[in-house]
Structure formats: structure tokens, C-alpha cells
Amino acid sequence: MSIKKLIVSAMLAASVLTAAVPVAMAADLPDFSAIVETEGKAVVNISTTSTVKEVSSGLPEGMEGDPFFEFFRRFAPPRMQERQESSLGSGFIISADGYVLTNAHVVARADKITVKLTDKREFQAKVIGSDARSDVALLKIEAANLPVARLGNAKDVKVGQWVLAIGSPFGFENTATSGIVSGKNRMLPDESAVQFIQTDAAVNPGNSGGPLFNMKGEVIGVNSQIYSRSGGFMGISFAIPIDTAMNVADQLKAKGKVTRSRIGVVIQELSKELAASFGLAKPSGALINALDPKGPAQKAGLKAGDIILKVNGQEVNSGGDLQRLISDMSPGKPLALDIWRNRAPATVRVVPEELKEEDSRIAQREYRKPGAQGEQSLAQIGLRLQELTPMQLKQAGIDYGLLVRAANGAAMRAGIQPGDVIVGVGSEPLQSFAQLKKALEQVKKGGTVALQVMRQGQVQFVPLTVGDAQ
After folding, report:
1. Within 210-271, where are the H helices?
2. How far apart are CA 305 and CA 311, in angstroms?
3. Rounded to whole angstroms, how far apart are CA atoms 466 and 101?
4. What's the pLDDT tens digit per position in 184-206?
5. What residues does 462 pair with on adjacent strands?
6. 10: Cβ contacts below 8 Å, ≥ 6 apart
7. Which of 168, 182, 345, 409 is the most buried if burial means most Cβ atoms within 10 Å?
């Protein structure tokens, strides 16, 4: 065969392979059309209207050029005005008789809620219950024989699996977007008690409350939040696991509220170095660094330094796991904690108590990761500080304090150590981080300020030179 014929044959073979590649790739990509057609019927559009009251100046419109404008501006009594606000969201039907699941923030403060089905029927909805901490709300419309979403198991979800979101972003009804699960068990720095499913499926305002499907057409999550610096989708969205959402919905349906438990511990996340120091092979578990003196954990004999490994046989890999497992338990029902104490395993039985609604914010702060929230930096003197939780303040017997998380430079040379608590500046008790920062700013470079520092329960004055050479 001549060289010319060999070249032509090779070019023909290459063209055949090139044409076949897109076909093969297309065959491997998921097709969501069947899920949209069948399961999409259970997805609803939710629109709300609410009345917003505002205080106005009390001046009539168009008075800006009037010679008496300044007089009226100062002395005219304010008046209350009302205006109507509307918002959009999504949801999905979980029972044929009209129960609808959505986000709590979608229907918050709504005076009127309209649920629109894919067949264009519209119904006025009633809020059966709403839980802001999990961002789940249960609605009811008067209808029968409705299409119902099939529910899956969020525990079976794996990072990398394909998912489909259906909702009404920016009011565009029945919009489908796809992506993959990009993370699991995400704890966000807010008041939420949820370990979210993270995806890269495009979710925007209006998608809130809509379902997140797996490839079987089962709902595995409720789209709730996005991470964005622009207000629009930036590649990261978060969904409430369906088992968490349904647990809340069942309680809302049964009693109109959600009951949670607490044992009264402050948790610190385990690092590799900390785990090794306690004799653990891996950094798995939740380290107790403080207890409520009157809480269930204290009464059960738990101590600071104990590491909780399991709750009723379920593994605890992080503080978030512990929070979720304890929160889901029934108050007053004993539970078994597998712990690690003095380099050996042990078991402690604890009777959790009900977490009161007014304590929800405090409870969330008790479980937060160090440095994740409330941490402040004073780089000029080499300090990283964090506000003490209400429980820690109570234990220390102080009204306010800043825990030293790291000390370098001038602070280290003054003898301040990680674990110290700054409780005052000069003779003044500390009331805020801003107060400390302002006091340091008022000291001239090379000047000295006396800080009241608590260490092992004892308060001492520590002279700190501001602007000390690094």
C-alpha cells in the first residue's frame, strides 16, 4: 500500500473516532426528562403577600420646597404607614390530601399564601406549623387526589451523584436545573440546626422550598440556601436532608411545634493533635470542654475532657453530629453515650431535657466550632480572641469575656497565653470587643495598658506594651 493510501486511511479512521466520541459521551450523560415529567407534577409555586408597617416622617408629599419644610420636619409627629410586599418560593406535595412542604422563610410573616400547581389550579394555603431553626414549614391546601412526591433517603446520598432541582427561580415556574452532590453534612455559621447537602445545581431566589431529586426521582432534600456574594447563584447551594425535613413536618402536623433535646455541654472539635494527646487513633468524636452546672450531662457525671464517640450506638464524628443526634432525641428518654475518658472507653447514661425555644440561639452557640463564629483579631498586639458562650460566662462567674485563642508578638511577650480570658481594661470591666479595641487605639505607640486577665479562675493584671517591636 502506498504512503498516500496509508495517510488517507488514517484520516478516515480518525474522523470516524471523532464522530463517535460525542455520541458516546452523550450516552453517558443523565437524562432528567422522565423525572421532570412524572415527579415534577408534585412541585408547586408559592406566592405570598404580607403587610409591612413603617414609620414615616409625617410630612405630606411634595413639601421639600416649602419654606416651612424644616419646621414641619422637626416637629411634625411621625405616622405609621402600611405597604404590601410579595414574594415567591417553591414547595412540593407530600400527601394526596394537600399537605405541602416548603421553607419557613418562604412563608414567614405572610398574610396570604397562594399555592399554584403545574396544571394551573390555585389554592389558598394555611400554615400548619413553621420551624425557623430548621427552615421547614408545613402548609395545607383543601384538595384531594393530588400528585405526591416520592421521598428518598438522604443517608444514601453520596458526593458526586447527579441531582435535579425543580422550582420557580425569579418566578419562572417549573424550572429544572441539574448538578452533582458536592458535599455532605455541611454546618453553616447561622442559627440553623441542619447538616446540609451541598450541591452545584443552580438554585436562585424563588427555588427556596423546592425539592432536590436523585436519579430515581426521589426527593432527597429541600432546597434552602445559596452561598453568594452577588445575590445570585455562584456554584454552591444547600438543601435540607429530607429525613430532617420530614421529622420536623411530622412534629408540626402532630402538635404544631418542634420539640428538641439538650444535654448541656459545650463542644470543641477534635484536631489530629488533640486526638493523639487523649490517646485516640483518629480525630473522631466531640470533645467536651465545659458543662452546664445544672444540665443533664453534669448530673450524669460527664466531665470536661470526655470525648463523646456514640449516641445510642450511632457514631459521632463531629460536634455537628452530636448536636443533630441529641436534638432529635425525645426529652426525658434516657440515652447511652459511648465516651472516651482517661485513655479508655466508658458508657454514660444521660436523660436529655427539652430545649426551650428561647434557648435555641444559646444552644447553637454552645455547639459552634471554635473560630467559626465570633472570633476577632487584634493583629497589632498579636491576639486572636473569641467571645465566651453564655454557659462559659456563667461558669466563670463573669458578665463578659474574650477567650485568647492565639497569642503572638507583644501579647506573648507580656505573658498572655491561649486559654486566658481577658475580662477588663485598666480598672474597667470588659463589656465588648469594641471597648478593648478602642482602649488599645488610644494608647500611644510604646505605651502600656493594663489588661485584666483570668487564668485558672484567678484574675491578674498584665501590662502590655502597645506597638512593641515584633
Report:
1. 242-255
2. 17
3. 56
4. 988 776 556 688 999 999 999 99
5. 451
6. none
7. 168
How would you list the strands of the sheet with 122-124, edge to edge? 122-124, 112-116, 43-56, 79-93, 99-102, 136-140, 126-131
Average pLDDT of the residues in 211-218: 97
* Measured distance CA(195)–CA(340) in Å, rounded: 24
Neighbours of 91 (CB within 10 A): 30
Beta carbons within 8 Å of 46's beta carbon, 6+ residues apart: 88, 89, 90, 91, 100, 102, 106, 107, 113, 114, 115, 116, 125, 139, 168, 209
Rg (CA), the chain: 29
Asked if 208 is an active-site residue, the reply is yes
Asked if 284 and 317 touch (Cβ cutoff 8 Å), the reply is yes
Give Cβ neighbours of residue 426 (< 8 Å, ≥ 6 apart). Answer: 439, 449, 450
Q: Which residue has the higher pLDDT, 2 or 123?
A: 123
- pLDDT band at 59; cut points 50, 70, 90: low
3-state secondary structure of 394: helix
Select which of 131, 135, 292, 420 is catalytic: 135
Q: State yes or no: is 66 an active-site residue.
A: no
**How does DSSP assign 87-99, residue by residue?**
EEEEEEE-STTSE
Beta strands 79-93; 43-56: pairing state: antiparallel
Q: Vertex 332, ends 354 and 256: CA angle to 5°?
A: 50
pLDDT score, position 56: 57
From 178, 208, 261, 318, active-site residue? 208
Kindly report, residue by residue over 244-279, the tens digit of the pLDDT. Answer: 999 999 999 999 989 999 999 888 778 787 788 888
Q: Which three cell numbers stand for residue 314?
A: 450511632
Given this model, what pLDDT does residue 427 score?
65
Q: Is 71 helix (H, G, I), strand (E, B) or coil?
A: helix
Choose the catalytic residue: 50, 95, 105, 243.
Answer: 105
Burial of 293 (0-12, 13-18, 19+ CB in 10 A): exposed
Comparison of pLDDT for 103 and 76, the residue scoring more = 103
pLDDT, residue 364, reads 43
